[in-house]
């Protein structure tokens, strides 16, 4: 008998009776079982009241009172679990949120794609180079990117190494935030050395100054410090792909009478694992976290309706975020039907645009990239199409890094295909660098300002 009052036919392992795609094939089942059991004994990374507080904030975003910024690496790597890397990524997310807050005049919910984004879906199980075929790289939680049989062998111990790094990352993020790193009273902490493009730097500085001024004005009028604005909350998210490890960190919270995935605040279902009768949907339907679902060109309107029914049968506010990723070329054609289809279910959802995954292309030289113009165009189209359909874009989901990488072409500094060779570090998808990320945030802010008649 299940302990959940709402879901009598679910427990954290019922997904095992369904077809599970994208799971690695481990050679040693005993070692796997031991690693998963160890993971199940370790303390949770997040707690249920934080998860509930994010759900409440997402419910506000559904009502148009807040806006979601979800971003981070396509795949975190164990090697990048370093103080400087983590701090820079946090900084760029904070800077984006500040710019967006000023433009949208709505609080920004900050959700990192970090502290657990270590498992990746892949389009093929194997990779062949010069006649040699090996398992594909599935993220640092599973195997290693190097092209040798040893590095590509799935290793269950990596699940524990991933848990540890997620925990170290989250610990550092929490300490930075608690220590005032994100304090709006000290925007001078938020150094802009990476902003080489002068007009962008000036525009950003103007925004920081105007926020500081408003804060000062409000505080002198009210005689109080603005605490809510002074401390930026940060939530975590990752794709809930590797089901054994997600299951191991799923706990029943007696006080809430619900099951939670306590490895992250907001797990999401990727495009490749959203099959209605599949194991991922089965697992996700039973956890109480707010969840995301990627919605791409391969999904029909009926499929999406059935997902909405399966994943949010109680129509609970804040529960379901639909992250569409059609690409600049297809969004026009595909999004309106999806919005209509979801409206017909009567469910309230949060619509978010991921302008990255529908805009991936390969250069003539064989390098995976994304054009900044397409990314901007998709976000712009998303705002407009939702408005035209009587709906609302409630957030963006981006792949970014705080490093000065050259993985996406375009942006204020006009990165070209020739630049990609200079600082291309991603093992998987190309990310926006810090400067491009801030430029995207400025476009969102400008667009909002223009709609209110303040260009
Ligand atoms: C991702 O977010 O990295 C990803 C693989 O996205 P999608 O499932 O939308 O393809
Ligand atoms: Co990606």
The secondary-structure element order is HHEHEEEHHHHEHEEEHEHEHEEEHEH
User: Order of strands in the sheet with the most strands?
Assistant: 1-2-5-8-9-10-11-14
Task: Estimate the strand proportion.
Answer: 5-15%
CATH architectural name: Alpha-Beta Barrel
Helix content: 25-40%
Hetero ligands = phosphoenolpyruvate, cobalt (II) ion
Contiguous helical run count: 13
CATH class placement: Alpha Beta
List keywords for this structure.
about 450 residues; alpha/beta; TIM Barrel; eight-stranded parallel barrel; two-stranded antiparallel ribbon; 13 helices; about 40% helix; about 15% strand; disordered N terminus; binds phosphoenolpyruvate; binds cobalt (II) ion
In short:
The chain has one domain (5-451): Alpha-Beta Barrel (TIM Barrel).
Describe this protein's structure.
With 455 residues, the chain is α/β, with parallel strands linked by helices. Helix 1 packs parallel to helix 5, helix 10 crosses helix 11 (331-345) and helix 12 (372-388) runs parallel beside helix 13. It is built from 13 helices and 14 strands. The protein has a single domain (5-451), classed as Alpha-Beta Barrel (TIM Barrel), CATH 3.20.20.70. The termini are far apart. The chain is globular, with a radius of gyration of 21 Å. Residues 1-5 have low confidence and may be disordered. The strands form 4 sheets. Strands 1-2-5-8-9-10-11-14 form an 8-stranded parallel beta barrel, surrounded by 5 helices. The chain has a two-stranded antiparallel sheet with strand order 3-4. It has helices at 29-41, 48-62, 83-104, 149-152, 157-178, 198-222, 227-230, 243-248, 279-286, 301-311, 331-345, 372-388, 434-451, and strands at residues 67-72, 108-112, 126-129, 132-135, 235-239, 250-253, 258-261, 266-269, 291-295, 320-324, 350-353, 360-362, 368-370, 393-399. The structure holds phosphoenolpyruvate (PEP) and cobalt (II) ion. The site of cobalt (II) ion has 5 residues, from loops.
